[in-house]
Amino acid sequence: MRNVSEFCSGVCTGFSAAWAIARKDILIYYAKPNIIVSGMLFPLFMFLAFAVGRPADPATMVPGLIAITILFSSSSIEPVSIPLERRTKTFERLLSAPVSLHMVVLGESMSGFLYSCCVALVPLAAGMVLFRIPVPDFPVLAAGIILLSFCFATMGTLFAAYPTESPGDIMSMLNLVRLPLIFVSGVFVPIGQVPFPGQVIAYLSPLTYGNDLVQAGFGRATQFHTGIDIAALCIAIGIFQSLANRLYRAFNE
Amino acid sequence: MHAIEAISLEKRFGTIQALAGISFSVEEGETFGFLGPNGAGKTTTIRILTGMTEPTGGSGRIFGRDVVREKIPARREIGIVHETSNIYTDLSAWENLIFTARLYNVGKRERESRAHDLLSVFGLAGRKDDKTKGFSKGMKRRLTIAMGLINNPRLLFLDEPTSGLDVQSNLIIRDVIRRLTGEGVTIFLTTHNIEEANILCDRVAIINRGRIAAIDTPERLKKTIQSVQSIEVAFDPSAAVRADELAEIDQVTAIRKMGDKYRLITGDPPAVIGGVMDYAGRSGLRIISINTLGPSLEDVFIRLTGLDEKGGGGTP
């Protein structure tokens, strides 16, 4: 009984510390120019590059815009904040605090997650208000936004484990992964029209399942059952969290 | 129960052995100095004892808790002041303290009360809500130490707390260290300032090339090298002094210029005093002051770390 109570108390303490880390990141990084550029402007320009001049109905484009907005905004905080904190040695503060590495990774990811959820509301509101696009299954859309945001925020934290003090190093590596994902994950081009190697990557990409969930929320045709999308995103989150934990431990030696 | 126990701690980075099985213990309430030249293994020892890295051999305990297996409970008992003033410069002094308190799970009422107290103690209350970006080096250092104390630790790791600071900050920090010692807080201090270790520490360990070279009270360490005594002499600056001629005085084993004074190292101070008098008379020099000095902790440090053999003879 005492062990259970100690465990519960430890978990609560860990979450409280993770939230403290997220709050700190919100206070410091949300208004940084490079976060705004990589998290908000970059997905907008990517979208315009696809959408301008194409005779597409906004209803078909808005779910994709939400998905890539989440991809870029959720993974834009930690690749900037963690190397900068390595440079100023403030990251050592987190690593030496009475907090498990899992909770440090969770706290770091939470700031990217919350940022992304807020940023995703912009194209969602634009779609609903300006283009009067209906959202017949709002809970599924919310699940899509939440899981996709958390998944890519954790991926951002995972990439930020690379032991550098330069955000540019991590952003370059991250873009090597993020940019191809847009083309193969069914965001703008249906997966069936992607060449075979791309289709293999598509089935491994969390963006495929997240985009599918968002499309489902808007009542559009989907590739997979909602349960499969949710399970795939949860598995990806677990893998990213576990890998991040291992890498931070290894690189901290 | 010991506050710190290091038992045959080893750390290897590939082929490099950073720590070669060091053992020591620190008692509760003790101020323990950990001295050594750069690369001797000081930071690695602190990183192991604070659970930031794992030893490749041996073990460490903080108040009886293993620093690998019981890392989180062990860390709750300690405060860490890193060598760099690692504060968040985009946050205010208050926000920095409150954030650290939240990391250590300090309750709301207690963290606010402690933050107020610490800002007053460290002379930062007037700048509480200012972004720390504009703080001086000394103010940043004081805030870093305040952050290390926010969880009311039983053991404080202080890594170079006063390095390169102004006099005011130095005095405040040393005063706080003395006050903490009075309150029974254990302090593990690494410093390059050997005089600081001499006046603050109950015991010091000297580490060199990953091994403990000596561990004892400052006074007992000094007694181990009684042969290293010295004469400190200052001449009237109006006449030129030839250091090479001073070095040739019988029984002088080494000479160091210390500001406007010369320190002549010897095992026979009376003989050297006579020699210095003769030299001054011959050269028409007026002696302003002359003192006999026992071995300093710095002498012990230089002797044990072999810095004098490397052509140093200067302050490490």
Number of E-state strands of chain A:
0
How many domains, in number, for the residues of chain B?
2
Distance between the termini of chain A: 36 Å
Biggest sheet layout of chain A: none
Percent helix of chain A, as a range, is over 70%
Largest interface: A-B, 25 and 27 residues
What's the architecture of the largest domain in chain B in CATH terms?
A: 3-Layer(aba) Sandwich
Distance between the termini of chain B: 34 Å
| Tally of DSSP helical segments of chain B | 11
Name given to the CATH homologous superfamily of the largest domain in chain B: P-loop containing nucleotide triphosphate hydrolases
- How many separate domains make up the residues of chain A? 1
Note the beta-strand portion of chain A. under 5%
Mean pLDDT of chain B: 89
Give, in spatial order, the strands making up the sheet with the most strands of chain B. 6-7-8-3-9-10
Taking the sheet with the most strands of chain B, its summary is:
6 strands, mixed
Query: Helix segment count of chain A?
Result: 11
Strand content of chain B: 25-35%
Give the oligomeric state: heterodimer
CATH topology of the largest domain in chain B: Rossmann fold
